[in-house]
């Protein structure tokens, strides 16, 4: 495209936003000492025949193709363009945008060289999109990330036609940015704890079974069912109490109640306080181990696998003494 073909008097800067209700203050653009306010709505050209999506404002000739974004803000920047200016001349500008409720922020690399530096006090970011940041720092106080994308890194050219749907789709899919994911809440922690239910139930049954064989004391199958019900009830207690006290304290209360109940019951069934305390200690250790796994993010699978290996090794060792 030749510079003479560019219609600078129709130039607009468009910001795509998924939800305008989150905007807290007026949005404006500052450049070369000028301040230009953004207006709601963006020109949209529907590339899909029969979809029923109408164009917004201005003519279709200068519309943004449907598929890139359809909701946002626009600002006419023709006043910033000097008559007869070179199309290669840089036009620095700054935009202040304050929003609530955003799930993420993304950038489409349309520049020859697109650089982005995003900083936030959000402690749980998820870097997303076609390009990952070159450098990143994440801690409890927030994060910072830097991107650099060359025009050679993307699959569309510097200039594209509005009716080139393939290039538009490539442009839309080339975005990069960050999602502000929610830290694990009490319900997610409850769901994670449920995933380990079969492990606790199985290992508890194995412990009771070994004690039954080694001590030559018979345990009625009905007692196994009662122990299983008590272990399942733990998760109901955990969920209900966590809605009042929070997950960590609820886990302690539910685990203590379940452990004491099963310890007292099995001590009575086996007629041995020592064996009841042994089962209680095993349950307390299991609940502590699972709690540690739930709190971990990066190494939960590794620690869980090593823990299962250790449990299996102990079971195999004591199984040598079992004679059926």
TrEMBL record:
GO cellular component, as recorded: plasma membrane
One protein family per Pfam: CreD
TM segment ranges: 196-214, 221-238, 244-264, 276-294, 300-318
Alphabetized UniProt keyword annotations: Membrane, Transmembrane, Transmembrane helix
InterPro entries noted in UniProt: Uncharacterised_IM_CreD
NCBIfam families, sorted: PRK11715.1-1
Protein name in UniProt: Inner membrane protein CreD
């Amino acid at each position: 495209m030749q510079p003479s073909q560019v219609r600078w008097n129709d130039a607009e800067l468009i910001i795509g936003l998924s939800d305008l209700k989150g905007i807290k203050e007026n949005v404006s653009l500052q450049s070369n000492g000028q301040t230009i306010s953004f207006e709601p709505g963006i020109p949209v050209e529907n590339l899909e025949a029969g979809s029923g999506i109408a164009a917004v404002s201005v003519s279709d000739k200068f519309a943004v193709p449907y598929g890139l974004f359809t909701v946002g803000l626009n600002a006419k920047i023709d006043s910033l363009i000097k008559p007869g200016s070179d199309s290669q001349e840089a036009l620095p500008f700054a935009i202040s945008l304050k929003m609530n409720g955003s799930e993420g922020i993304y950038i489409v690399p349309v520049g020859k060289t697109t650089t982005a530096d995003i900083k936030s006090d959000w402690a749980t970011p998820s870097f997303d999109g076609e390009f990952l940041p070159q450098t990143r720092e994440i801690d409890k106080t927030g994060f910072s990330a830097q991107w650099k994308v060359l025009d050679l890194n993307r699959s569309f050219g510097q200039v594209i036609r509005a009716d080139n749907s393939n290039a538009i789709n490539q442009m839309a899919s080339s975005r990069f940015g960050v999602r502000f994911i929610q830290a694990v809440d009490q319900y997610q922690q409850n769901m994670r704890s449920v995933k380990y239910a079969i492990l606790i139930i199985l290992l508890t049954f194995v412990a009771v079974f070994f004690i039954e064989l080694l001590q030559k004391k018979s345990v009625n199958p009905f007692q196994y069912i009662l122990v299983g019900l008590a272990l399942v009830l733990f998760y109901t207690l955990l969920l209900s109490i966590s809605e009042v006290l929070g997950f960590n304290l609820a886990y302690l209360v539910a685990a203590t109640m379940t452990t004491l109940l099963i310890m007292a019951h099995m001590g009575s069934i086996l007629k041995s306080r020592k064996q009841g305390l042994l089962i209680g200690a095993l349950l307390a250790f299991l609940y502590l181990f699972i709690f540690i796994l739930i709190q971990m993010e990066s190494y939960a699978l590794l620690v869980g696998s090593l823990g299962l290996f250790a449990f299996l090794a102990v079971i195999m060792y004591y199984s040598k003494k079992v004679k059926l």
